[in-house]
Amino acid sequence: MAIGIIFIVVGILIAAFPKLLSIIVAAFLIMVGVTLASMSYHFKKTQKETNNPFVDFFIKF
């Protein structure tokens, strides 16, 4: 229920302040980019340290 209320409040804020939407989207995209970059670094580091065929199969790129 609390999440629903938060979504309603955020929706009202976005309707009142349209620039807020671009800030939220930009922050989300930055967070996704940082997460993917750190996951890629961690997986490549793990792949170099171990010779696990499971890791090699999923981390070919």
Describe the structure.
This protein has 61 residues and is an all-alpha fold. The protein has one domain. Helices cover 85% and strands 0% of the residues. The protein has helices at 2-16, 19-49, 53-58. The N and C termini lie far apart (41 Å).
- What percent of residues adopt helix (DSSP H or I)? over 70%
> Which class do the helix and strand fractions yield?
mainly alpha
Strand content: under 5%
Question: What characteristic shape results from the CA principal axes?
Answer: elongated
Q: What is the number of helical segments per DSSP (H or I, 4+ residues)?
A: 3
Oligomer: single chain
Biggest sheet character: none
Please summarize what this structure is:
The chain has 61 residues and is mainly alpha-helical. It has helices at 2-16, 19-49, 53-58.
Topology (elements, then pairings):
Blueprint: H1 2-16, H2 19-49, H3 53-58
Keywords for this structure?
mainly alpha, 61 residues
